[in-house]
Amino acid sequence: MSRTDAILKRLSMLHPKLIDLSLERLNRLLDDLGRPDHHMPPVIHVAGTNGKGSTIAYLRAMLEAAGKSVHVYTSPHLVRFNERIRLAGKLVSTRRLNAVLERVEQVNAGQPITYFEVTTAAAFVLFSEIKADYLLLEVGMGGTYDTTNVVEHPLGIIITPVDLDHMAFLGNTIGKIAVEKANIMKRGSPAVIARQAEEGLASINRVAARLGVVPFVGGEDFDAFAQDGRLIYQDDKGLLDLPPPKLIGNHQFENAGVAIAAIRHFGLPVDEAAMAQGLGDVVWPARLSPVAGKLRDLLGPGAELWLDGGHNAHGTRALARALEDMNRARPAPLVLIMGMMNTRSPAAVLAPFEGMAERIITLTIPGEPNAHEARYIAEEASKAGFKASAARTIEAALKSAATTPNARVVISGSLYLAGQVLLKNGTFPE
C-alpha cells in the first residue's frame, strides 16, 4: 500500500458512513484551517447528473488556450487520487498531496468527518495557497449539502443535465433531484443551465426565482449543435462556427456548448480562437475513448476497443446514440463489456442498447464490495432479451469478445470499472 493510500484509509475511518450529507463537519474543519475556501481563485461551480466532467474539461482547455491558469477539482478518480486535484494545470504531486492530507488530518485531530469532506478540505488548502486565475469546482453529489457548497460567492454556476441518479440520497423524481442540484446557486452569481427535462427545469427556475437569479438556459437562451461536421453555437451575442469537439458523440457538442455559454455569460476572457483551440486540445479520459495497448491486443486484428464511464441510464442513452453514429460511419458488430455498482438497475442501464448489442459480457468490478455480481447482471440482461454471459476478469471478457470477428468492443457501466481497465492497461491519466 502506498503512503497516499495509507493516509486515505486512515481518513476513511473517521466517520462510520461514506456519505453523510451535511456541511457542519466541514465548516468546523475549515474554521480550524483558517477558512482556505475564502482565499481561493474565482470559482466556477458545476453540478448536474451527467456531463459535469466533460464541461469542466472544455472550460479548462479553452481557458488555458487563452493563457489562463486553472485549478480543477473533480471526482471520482480513475486510477490515482491525484487526478481529483489539478493545480494551475498539473495534477497535484504525490509529495504535495501526502503533505496536505497529513496536515489536515492533524488539524482535524480525529474528529468525525467523512472521506470526501476531509479530502475536499485538503484540496481547498492547496487551491488557496497556489495561485491561479480560476478554480473549476465539481459537485460530488447533489448540491445542497455537498461539501463543495461551502463556497459563498462563486463567479458563476453551471448545472449540466439532471436525471435520475443517487435517488436514495437526492429524491426519486427528476424534479426533486433538480432542486438539490439547483441549491448550489447563489444570489448575485450568474447561472448557466444546460438543456433540461421539463420537470427539472421547472424546479431549477423556482430555486433561481427565490434567489433573484435569471438563469441562462440551453434551448432557450443559447444553443449548440453539430452541423456539417462543425460545432454551431448561438446566443443573443451572435453565432459561432467552430471546429468539432475532440471528444466523441453528439452529447459532447452540447457539453462544449454549455462551456461556451459559461464563457460568454460569465464574461470570461476567452476569444473565438481560444475556444477553437480548446475544442481540439480537450482531454477527458474514459469518455468513449479508444484504448490501445496490451488490452486491445487481446482482441486481435480488425477489432476496436473503446472505454466509457457511462454509469446510469442517462449516460448509456448518450453512449448508445454515439455508437449508432459510429455504426453508420463504419458498421461493426457491437459487443458490450459491462460492470456496475449495486445502486444501478442493470435493466435500466442496458435498455438503450436494445437491438444494437450482439452480445453482452458482464463483470464484477474488481475491488468494489458494492458492485453487482457479474452473474446477476448477466441474468438481468438475459431477462431483458440480450445474449449475455459472465466473465471472471477483464482479460477473460476481452478474450471472449475476441470470438466475434471485427467487433466494436465497448467497456462501460462504471467509472470504477473504467479505472480498473486503465490500471490493467498501464494507462495513467495526466
From TrEMBL:
<feature type="domain" description="Mur ligase C-terminal">
    <location>
        <begin position="303"/>
        <end position="414"/>
    </location>
</feature>
<comment type="similarity">
    <text>Belongs to the folylpolyglutamate synthase family.</text>
</comment>
<keyword id="KW-0067">ATP-binding</keyword>
<protein>
    <recommendedName>
        <fullName>Dihydrofolate synthase/folylpolyglutamate synthase</fullName>
        <ecNumber>6.3.2.12</ecNumber>
        <ecNumber>6.3.2.17</ecNumber>
    </recommendedName>
</protein>
<keyword id="KW-0479">Metal-binding</keyword>
<comment type="pathway">
    <text>Cofactor biosynthesis; tetrahydrofolylpolyglutamate biosynthesis.</text>
</comment>
<dbReference type="InterPro" id="IPR013221">
    <property type="entry name" value="Mur_ligase_cen"/>
</dbReference>
<dbReference type="Pfam" id="PF02875">
    <property type="entry name" value="Mur_ligase_C"/>
</dbReference>
<dbReference type="Pfam" id="PF08245">
    <property type="entry name" value="Mur_ligase_M"/>
</dbReference>
<dbReference type="InterPro" id="IPR004101">
    <property type="entry name" value="Mur_ligase_C"/>
</dbReference>
<dbReference type="InterPro" id="IPR036615">
    <property type="entry name" value="Mur_ligase_C_dom_sf"/>
</dbReference>
<dbReference type="InterPro" id="IPR001645">
    <property type="entry name" value="Folylpolyglutamate_synth"/>
</dbReference>
<comment type="function">
    <text>Functions in two distinct reactions of the de novo folate biosynthetic pathway. Catalyzes the addition of a glutamate residue to dihydropteroate (7,8-dihydropteroate or H2Pte) to form dihydrofolate (7,8-dihydrofolate monoglutamate or H2Pte-Glu). Also catalyzes successive additions of L-glutamate to tetrahydrofolate or 10-formyltetrahydrofolate or 5,10-methylenetetrahydrofolate, leading to folylpolyglutamate derivatives.</text>
</comment>
<keyword id="KW-0460">Magnesium</keyword>
<keyword id="KW-0547">Nucleotide-binding</keyword>
<keyword id="KW-0289">Folate biosynthesis</keyword>
<comment type="pathway">
    <text>Cofactor biosynthesis; tetrahydrofolate biosynthesis; 7,8-dihydrofolate from 2-amino-4-hydroxy-6-hydroxymethyl-7,8-dihydropteridine diphosphate and 4-aminobenzoate: step 2/2.</text>
</comment>
<feature type="domain" description="Mur ligase central">
    <location>
        <begin position="46"/>
        <end position="262"/>
    </location>
</feature>
<dbReference type="InterPro" id="IPR036565">
    <property type="entry name" value="Mur-like_cat_sf"/>
</dbReference>
<keyword id="KW-0436">Ligase</keyword>
<dbReference type="InterPro" id="IPR018109">
    <property type="entry name" value="Folylpolyglutamate_synth_CS"/>
</dbReference>
